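re the bet — no i am not wrong, look at it urself. input seq straight from the record:
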Amino acid sequence: MTDVRDLAGFNRSLAADAPPADLSFALKGLWWDAKGDWQKAHECAQAQDDPTGAWVHAYLHRREGDAQNAAYWYRRAEKPVSSAALDAERTTIIETLLAAEAGARR
C-alpha cells in the first residue's frame, strides 16, 4: 500500500487500480479524476457533504465544462471560482487537503 501523505505519494498511488482506502471521499474523487474517471470522481465528491466535498465537486463541474454548476459548488465550498489551469487547480486542492489531513492526525 502506498503511503499518501504528500503529492508525490498521491501520484505514486495512481499506479494502483483503486485509491487508498484511508483517503477521504474528496481525495478519492481527485484520485479518480487523475485516473480519467469523471463519473467515479463525481460520486466520491457527492459522498462528502461538506465544504471540502463541495470544492472538489466545483472543480469537477468546471472540468466538465459546466461553469454555472461549478459556480454553485464554489459558493457552497466558500471558495472563489478558479481560473487556474485544471491540472494546477487539482494539484492545489490535493496539496491543501493532504496538509489538512496531516494536521488533523497530529
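see?? Residues 45 and 56 are 6 Å apart (CA to CA). told u. also The chain has one domain: 7-105. so pay up
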